[in-house]
Amino acid sequence: MSLFSTIVSQLVNGLQSGSIYALVALGYSMVYGIILLLNFAHGDIIMVGAYAAWMCMVNFHLHPVVSILIAILTSTLLGVVIEKVAYTPLRSAPRLSLLITAIGVSFLLENGFQLIFGAGAKDMSSAMTAVTGGPSISFGGTTLSFPAMLTIIVSILSMAVLTFLVQKTKLGKAMRAVSEDMGAAQLMGISVNATVSFTFAVGSALAGIGAILYLCAYPQANPTMGSMLGLKAFVAAVLGGIGSIPGAMIGGFVIGMAEALVSAVGLSVWKDGVVFAILIVVLLVKPTGILGRNITEKV
Amino acid sequence: MNQNQKRIPMPARYAINAALVVLAFVALNLITGALSSYYTKILMLVGINIILAVSLNVATGYLGQLPLGHAGFMAVGGYAAGIFLKAMPMPNLDKLPEGANAAAAHLQYNFYVVLALLLAGLVAAIFGIIIGVPALRLKGDYLAIITLGFGEIIRVVLLNIDSVLGFDFTFGASGLKRIPKAATVSNVFICVVITCLVIHMVMKSRHGRAILSIRENEIAAESCGIHTTYYKVMAFTLSAFFAGVAGALYATYVGILQPNTFGFMKSIEILVMVVLGGMGSMLGSILSATVLTALPQVLLAFDKWRMVLYSIVLILVMIFKPSGLMGTYDFSMSRLLEKFMNRFGGKKKGEAVKQ
């Protein structure tokens, strides 16, 4: 393989993982934008989505499309339930309490699933071929595999739908209003509770889609798959500017590319270290991220 | 109102506390003699976890920040002590050569152990400064995530540094093996006492009050002339130092170190102890570290459920009693004695008023 084709294939890899990170980062960013909570459990929603897909496809032998819909629905519901049970009672509590609760929820999901399904990975490679088995395009000695194309197209579509939802619909307007000023939004007759739940639902649905796309690339589910994925997506959200939707997309692609580059030069064991190093540099140089807004603290 | 109440003078308070510590030490040694090695191991683990929880409490409870990389400092300290002890000519206490002076060998052995503990603390404290200076510029969630990042980087580096530099330094994933098992119940106990004493004394000094004022309101503290950055880094470093000591004790307790022991999970485990006990209460940290360490060891069936239960406890405590079980209450024997003296010495109190 020539150098050029290596570079192109690594770029495609980076785009593929980057678009998954971007989808997950969007969930972090939206939730952070609206209730200023770093939702640690977001990564684990992906894990639950993957397990739901595994249950449907491997255990119940459902049609792939049905399974995918069920997986996305499960993630969405889970996100809303977590918000109602764990975060709503703490909305006026100190931020630290909310953050610790989020860590608790994340650990509950991870360890609960480990207890129920065991720590081993659930293989789905044969089941996922129904989704990933499509034509691939090759040009100039490089192949663009079907899963990569699917991932990139689906994530771009999802982002387009999300942008439309946030910018053009009434619900999106409510979301933007609540994230601007919760109290004022309530006075204007916006139901804050419903809006926050809706935000969690949208973010979690994106996480569900992310779970399916992740399974296309790595067809196995295990209880801790969400934590690293979630953390990296969070890094992406911070990099792009937390609370900003286009920022999350940019951040996701940058993180995916950086990982692909590190792997390409043969340092794949340092991948996680590099991602966190990026985070630290960003937080020190420009804590608001690429597209973030500056918020000055008032007394 | 305190004028007509009897108070114990400071020297007597020190004497009471010293007597209590000695009493606890003697009691512990008597108990250890009667216990099987399984239970002494649990006792040591309890001690190590108490040091970890009390040290994290400095950063979380007193300073009011949420670092998620405490296990990273523990790892740094553990590896520093492990590498140091392996490099030193440790006398083999079980099989002394013929004619060797047993007392001198013991002295040499303990000297190296103390040196290793100090070294571990210092190395961890240096890392605390290196990480604290940039990280403490941030607050809340950002601080949590940046310390998490640093903790993960420490783990990744410990895992891979050998293959990059070609050293036999940390031995990567297979772990640093055959570290002398120097930890005993009494030296763990001494470390626990020193940790609690130092942290208590720092917190009762003007530096401690400065740290508490940052927790209460950083902007107000700064406008009162408190050098917030300095005190934040100081508290963070203090916390890291004792985490390093705990790591060194852990290394000499298990005898083998693997980087993956010190992941994100470990940091959260320590955090659960602090949060459950009450952020800002040393007694709370000690009690919850004891219970949460001993319980899974005693109830083995419980071990499988441990992490699930931890997380449920964490969520429930946050929803129903965010200040933790003990709040910021701390126990003081002298205060208790004063209460008794004032209650049962009612007449004397009256006399004091007349005078």
Automatic annotation (TrEMBL), chain A:
Family matches, as Pfam families: BPD_transp_2
Stretches that traverse the bilayer: 20-38, 68-86, 98-117, 137-166, 187-214, 234-262
Subcellular location: Cell membrane
Keywords linked to the UniProt accession: Amino-acid transport, Cell inner membrane, Cell membrane, Membrane, Transmembrane, Transmembrane helix, Transport
Listed GO MF terms: L-isoleucine transmembrane transporter activity; L-leucine transmembrane transporter activity; L-phenylalanine transmembrane transporter activity; L-valine transmembrane transporter activity
Matching InterPro entries: ABC_transp_permease (IPR001851), BCAA_transport_permease (IPR052157)
Cellular component GO terms, alphabetical: plasma membrane
GO BP terms, alphabetized: D-alanine transmembrane transport; L-alanine transport; L-isoleucine import across plasma membrane
Membrane topology: Multi-pass membrane protein
Similarity comment text for this entry: Belongs to the binding-protein-dependent transport system permease family. LivHM subfamily.
Protein's name in the database: Branched-chain amino acid ABC transporter permease
Species lineage: Bacteria, Bacillati, Bacillota, Clostridia, Eubacteriales
